[in-house]
Amino acid sequence: MSANALSDRINNLSVSQTLAMAAKARELTALGKDIISLSLGEPDFNTPDFIKEAAKTAIDENWSNYPPVDGYLELKNAIINKFKRDNDLEYQPANIVVSTGAKQSLYNIAQAMINDGDEVILPAPYWVSYYEIVKMAGGVPVVVPTTVDSDFKMTAAQLQQAITPKTKMMWFSSPCNPSGSVYSKEELTVLVEVLNKHEQIYVVSDEIYEHINFTGSYCSIGSLPGMLNRTITVNGVAKAFAMTGWRIGYIGAPEFIAKACTKLQGQVTSGANSIAQRATIAALNANPSEINYMVDAFHKRRDLVMQLVNDIPGLKVNMPEGAFYVFPDVSYFFGKTLNGVEIKDADDLALYLLEYANVATVTGAAFGNPNCIRLSYATSEDVLIEAFKRIKAVLS
């Protein structure tokens, strides 16, 4: 049997570079190599006890039947209250769909809204899966490049230039994975002024890192004038509540879009895990201050990592204001030879660091920015100090 037996759709799909690098790091670790992996975006904390207790109670109360396709009403109400409390967004239960992780939420949106040839604007760097999810739905990703000098943020002029009669959507994340950039209310307002001239464009706002934010304020684009009925706000509990394995994501969207996502989900997975949904009710009903200890730890690590990065000549980095990544520009090393290895691009540098420093990172090419690499600081300070010591040694 050959690849010809597989669909063009799957043959044209790229492998997730973050998961590929994590797998490579695990393989080398299994071979006895002392690998430090800074490749995966996963909090190194355990799920808070009050959330685990809610899950145990749900098991004891026998929440073991099929849940509604779009989520339990009690969870939808918790999501509605959360959107109102944290984001100034007004929704009803018919606007909410709960899915098996925010990644499924994004996939549902693409399949429900994008036709062949529809253009989707992606400010780069973008999260690794946006490009492939859009492509799989028949859409055409329109990449808007940004640089470390602009804090990896798209300007209104760039947005305007990217819009054509075929533009259907814009997808972005704030705080951004991989750059850690957070769009301020003022910056979003300027983008909205452009969007309001093009009412056919819908926005997907990925806010999964909203609580891991060191700026002291947060603005959801859907809360700005004219945007609620054309924004799909995507969120979940994986990052802020250290619940990556629980697989719960959700959207707030115009009712016709929520219905379409529910229709699709009903044919693909049906409702998300019942016990995880019950645990998520406890997570979202809690005061966000319950997770301050994690946010404070990430903030402290951010400051440490900035010191460590700035101590390595050739790395150029912005100040990430949220999430738990740094995204240094490494183009200084392109064309240079290190330990007999020629570094042509960020792919080469990421592989070089894996082989010579035993540190796993992810190439920026996976995020639409081929001059950078992504490093996650969702690990202990001791591990971070050792990792950057190794990186500095092999880049000097």
Short characterization:
The protein is α/β, with parallel strands linked by helices.
Report on this structure:
This protein has 396 residues and is α/β, with parallel strands linked by helices. The chain has two domains: 3-46 and 291-395, Aspartate Aminotransferase, domain 1 (Alpha-Beta Complex); 65-287, Type I PLP-dependent aspartate aminotransferase-like (Major domain) (Aspartate Aminotransferase, domain 2), CATH 3.40.640. It is built from 13 helices and 14 strands. It has helices spanning 8-11, 17-30, 49-60, 73-87, 102-113, 128-136, 156-162, 185-195, 255-268, 274-285, 292-310, 346-357, 381-395; strands spanning 36-37, 96-99, 119-124, 140-145, 167-173, 202-206, 231-236, 249-252, 325-326, 336-338, 341-343, 359-360, 362-363, 373-376. The strands form four sheets. A seven-stranded mixed sheet has the order 2-8-7-6-5-3-4, with helices on both faces. Helix 3 (49-60) crosses helix 10 (274-285), helix 4 runs parallel beside helix 10 (274-285) and helix 7 runs parallel beside helix 8. The longest helix is centred in the C-terminal third of the chain and has 19 residues, at 292-310. The chain is globular. The mean pLDDT is 96.
